[in-house]
Amino acid sequence: MTATRIPWREFWPQVRDVLRAAPRGSTVASVLPAVRAIVGNGATVDSLGDACKYHERVGVSAMFGAPDTTPRETTLDDRRVAERDRRQANDTRHDLRRALEHLDKLDAVVREYERFTETPIAPIVPARLHRGKRPAIAVALLSDVHAEERVDRTPAIDNEYTLAIAERRVARFFAAVPWLVRKEARVFAIDTVIVWLGGDIITGDIHDELLERAAVPPGEATMIARDWIVNGLRAMLDALPGVRLVVPCSVGNHGRATKSMRAATGYGHSWEWLLYQMIGHAFRDEPRVEVHASRDEMQYVTALDATLAFHHGHRMRYNGGIGGITIPAIKAAHRWDAWREVDYYHFGHFHTRLDLGQIAFNGSVIGPSPYGFAIGARPEPPQQSFYVLDAKRGKTAASPVWVAE
Question: In this structure, are residues 163 and 110 in contact, taking their beta carbons and an 8 Å threshold?
Answer without folding.
Answer: no
